[in-house]
Amino acid sequence: MSSLYQEHLPDTYRALPRHVAIIMDGNGRWAKNQGKLRISGHRAGAKAVRRAVRFAVSQEMEALTLYAFSSENWNRPEQEVSALMELFIWALDSEVKSLHKHNVRLKVIGDVTRFSPRIQQRIRQAESLTAENSGLTLNIAANYGGRWDIIDGVRRLAHQVQAGSLQPDDISEQMLEEQLCLCTLSPVDLVIRTGGEHRISNFLLWQVAYAEFYFSDVLWPDFDEHVFQGALDAFSLRERRFGGAAPDGA
């Protein structure tokens, strides 16, 4: 077990998770059910993001990480990807002031170098505006993949080895963990996936090693405070062992 997980073990008896990650699935199916274009589902999904963030703030969570755009999503039709990029810009421009007002710190995790210069500039501006906020940390995973995250961390350590500042035998689990996204936050306690699918889809492969999972059939645009609360209620009933035995030895 990594040192970061050991560090946070005393708090595992909290009824509420400190760090929730959500795989937001179902925008396309929601739009199809409504007889609308897929981009309509993504726009409705953006409203669900707003509700989720508001709820996380009300629950005084430490962090909320949302899977917005995976590294595999580039394979979608060009028109849909282009519309998603414009929606991303709109969301950054329209929501960042509200996030700042509510003391939310915004971070975008993933390989942002593939985005256009315009989007990269908006990301830098949004992160800079909210950098000193001390409330909820909102992580938006964009062009993110769990495998990319691990490989990028390994590459960073390899550069240190190449420079002679690190010996291969000295590399530890904690050292690699410190190179990954979200390393400054508490570990992910709860992963929620909407849309009825039961898979992780290359999301935070390292960071969710000891997380609890909650799967909902609700399509993401319909995700609201009641569904979120249901996930928290289910989490509060879980017995988290982190690889250890139950108190009764089972």
Automatic annotation (TrEMBL):
For this UniProt record, give its keywords in alphabetical order, as a comma-separated list.
Cell shape, Cell wall biogenesis/degradation, Magnesium, Metal-binding, Peptidoglycan synthesis, Transferase
Which PROSITE patterns does this UniProt record tie to the protein? UPP_SYNTHASE (PS01066)
**In the UniProt record, does the keyword Lipid metabolism occur?**
no
What is the enzyme's class at the highest EC level?
Answer: transferase
**What Pfam families does the annotation carry?**
Prenyltransf
Cofactor list: Mg(2+)
Binding positions (substrate): 26-30, 38, 42, 70-72, 74, 76, 193, 199-201
What's the superkingdom here? Bacteria
Quote the EC number: 2.5.1.31
Q: How does it assemble?
A: Homodimer.
The organism's lineage? Bacteria, Pseudomonadati, Pseudomonadota, Gammaproteobacteria, Enterobacterales
Q: Which InterPro entries match?
A: UPP_synth-like, UPP_synth-like_CS, UPP_synth-like_sf
Return the protein name: Ditrans,polycis-undecaprenyl-diphosphate synthase ((2E,6E)-farnesyl-diphosphate specific)
Stated family: Belongs to the UPP synthase family.
* Residues involved in Mg(2+) binding: D25, H198, E212
Q: Which residues form the active site?
A: D25, N73
> Can you state which reaction this protein catalyses?
8 isopentenyl diphosphate + (2E,6E)-farnesyl diphosphate = di-trans,octa-cis-undecaprenyl diphosphate + 8 diphosphate
Q: How is the cofactor bound?
A: Binds 2 magnesium ions per subunit.
Main function: Catalyzes the sequential condensation of isopentenyl diphosphate (IPP) with (2E,6E)-farnesyl diphosphate (E,E-FPP) to yield (2Z,6Z,10Z,14Z,18Z,22Z,26Z,30Z,34E,38E)-undecaprenyl diphosphate (di-trans,octa-cis-UPP). UPP is the precursor of glycosyl carrier lipid in the biosynthesis of bacterial cell wall polysaccharide components such as peptidoglycan and lipopolysaccharide.
